[in-house]
Amino acid sequence: MFRIVADGLNLGAMSDSSYLSSPSWIFTAVFALSLAIATALKVWLSTRQARYVARHRNEVPTAFSRNVTLSAHQKAADYTIAKTRAELLELAMGVFVLVAWTLLGGLSALNSALLQSLGAGMIQQIALLAGFVLVSSLLDLPLALYGTFVVEERFGFNKMTLRLWFLDLIKSCLIGTLVGLPIATLILWLMGATGSQWWLWAWCVWMGLNLLLLLIYPSFIAPLFNKFTPLVDESLKTRVTALMQRCGFAAKGLFVMDGSKRSAHANAYFTGFGATKRVVFYDTLLARLSVAEVGAVLAHELGHFRHWHIGKRILMMFGLSLLCFSLVGWLATQVWFYQGLGVEPSLDTPNDALALLLFMLSLPVFGFFLTPIFSALSRRHEFEADAYAVAMTSGPDLCTALLKLYEDNASTLTPDPLYAQVYYSHPPASERLARITLQPR
């Protein structure tokens, strides 16, 4: 028995034994094995998390017994378990869809259908990207609805109506089309017009557009979804302004966002870049915290800027995206990459969109194994920001603010330690509050 395969520039007949040692088969095996290991680890970690939280559901940890009621602790446990189960459902769906797109030939079938109807060329490649996004988005809809109107609704967090949810979806699709389609077209053009170094040009364009989005998001995109009003509480404004001056931080304005329009979760954040930087408080946060506690939360956010965490993350994004673009630039010329993921490439009519899509599909599989590293780095930044907040405001105020936020957001106080090490971008409550209380003023 023989198979005809493309291997670089040579086409030839290969026996089954030769095929099993071919680069395409090896890559298929590596991809499938990595997917299986990553999926098994995710399932194992999630089940550990659910069991650990359930096992500690009926007793508030001693360190929190004065501030957290048993009912609040149990609600957080139930919410965590419900979200974990939803994540397992999403994981199962995600693995099935990934295998369907790749090893089962879904992407290859979509590409062939579009080639037959549109012919080869830029229009077909753009249609392939758009078709992939459309199908993937439709497949994600049921789980997104379940997460919002079942899980979040059950625990009293969802404030959205079905109408508002779909309006947000329509707005997101329109923005994605108006922004994403030109970017995709430009990158595809660069891939075909600038030779083997296309990935360097594409990376420059990509990073420039990301920086541009940081500038325009606060003023033009965010207001399409939420209402932002200037902060009017004079006592809070005075305290916040004094804190920012003490920290040497300037922002374009202080705003309150109608977060309660969609969710009962509370938060505060900085957004923008350069002259467009602004401080945004959720109305749910202001309704729950005292003026001193809001100041402590703001000081934490200022700590991220003082320690250059935002700049470091942008530089990291620059470096990782450059690595990814260069990797795509190489993989796009390797026939085994396409064949290993279920696509038979045409040597006569290269399809750059296929290379981009296959890379986007396979990257999360291998990237999962780096998750603990990025999580640990993020937790380190959170500890540094907490220390800065304690130095600039008050440790007790930060502790009480965090406890209220943990309670309001139903964040479990007893996560599985291993699960937290892998996934948590913020330190678990017990570690975080213990560190804060030890910080010198």
Would you kindly provide a written description of the structure presented here, covering whatever features stand out?
With 441 residues, this protein is α+β, with helices and mostly antiparallel strands. The chain has a domain at 226-308 and 373-438: 2-Layer Sandwich (Zincin-like). Helices cover 69% and strands 6% of the residues. It has 17 helices and 6 strands. The protein has helices spanning 16-20, 23-55, 70-101, 106-118, 122-154, 162-193, 198-221, 234-247, 283-288, 291-306, 309-331, 335-340, 352-367, 371-392, 395-408, 417-423, 429-438, and strands at residues 2-7, 10-15, 228-230, 254-257, 268-271, 278-282. The longest helix is centred in the first third of the chain and has 33 residues, at 23-55.
Most strands sheet: 4 strands, mixed
CATH topology of the domain at 226-308 and 373-438: Zincin-like
CATH architecture of the domain at 226-308 and 373-438: 2-Layer Sandwich
CATH class identity of the domain at 226-308 and 373-438: Alpha Beta
The global form is globular
CATH superfamily of the domain at 226-308 and 373-438: Metalloproteases ("zincins"), catalytic domain
Q: Helix fraction?
A: 55-70%
Say how many strands there are. Answer: 6
* Percent of residues in β-strands: 5-15%
Strand order of the largest sheet: 3-4-6-5
Unreliable stretches covering 5 or more consecutive residues: 1-17
The ordered H/E elements are EEHHHHHHHEHEEEHHHHHHHHH
Helix and strand layout, with pairings?
Elements: E1 2-7, E2 10-15, H1 16-20, H2 23-55, H3 70-101, H4 106-118, H5 122-154, H6 162-193, H7 198-221, E3 228-230, H8 234-247, E4 254-257, E5 268-271, E6 278-282, H9 283-288, H10 291-306, H11 309-331, H12 335-340, H13 352-367, H14 371-392, H15 395-408, H16 417-423, H17 429-438
Helix pairs in contact: 2-3, 3-5, 4-5, 5-6, 5-13, 6-7, 7-11, 8-10, 10-14, 10-15, 15-17
